[in-house]
Design brief:
- The chain has 99 residues and is mainly α.
- Helices cover 53% and strands 0% of the residues.
- The chain starts with a helix and ends in a 6-residue tail after the last helix.
- The model has no long low-confidence stretch (mean pLDDT 89).
C-alpha cells in the first residue's frame, strides 16, 4: 500500500475501534493483537537442481531470509535470534548478518 492508501485504511480501523468502544466509553480489557505475516521464497531452479547442480543449500537461503525478517520485527541482532549451538553454522552461511 502506498502512503495515502495506508492512512485511509488506518483511519478506517480507528473508526471501527472508536465505534466498537463507543468513543472509549467501553474499555477494552484483556485484549490482544495478533499479526500474521506470510512470506514465500522463490528459486530459479527446483530444489533438487539447486542442491545437485549448484551445490547450494536452499535451506541456508530460506534461513537468511527468515533471519532478516526476524531482525526487522524484533529489532534484535541475528546472534540473539538463533540457538547458540547453531550460531557458528549460520554465521558461516551468512556472515554479513552477524557483523
Amino acid at each position: 500500500m502506498r502512503g495515502d492508501e495506508q492512512k485511509a485504511e488506518k483511519d478506517k480501523a480507528m473508526d471501527l475501534l472508536d465505534a466498537l468502544t463507543k468513543s472509549g466509553a467501553i474499555p477494552v480489557e484483556n485484549a490482544s493483537l495478533h499479526i500474521v505475516m506470510a512470506a514465500t521464497h522463490g528459486f530459479d531452479k527446483t530444489v533438487v537442481e539447486t542442491v545437485v547442480q549448484d551445490n547450494v543449500s536452499p535451506i541456508e537461503k530460506v534461513e537468511r531470509s527468515t533471519l532478516i525478517l526476524a531482525q526487522t520485527i524484533h529489532d534484535l541482532p541475528s546472534g540473539e535470534l538463533i540457538e547458540p549451538s547453531q550460531l557458528g553454522r549460520a554465521a558461516a552461511a551468512s556472515p554479513r548478518l552477524f557483523e
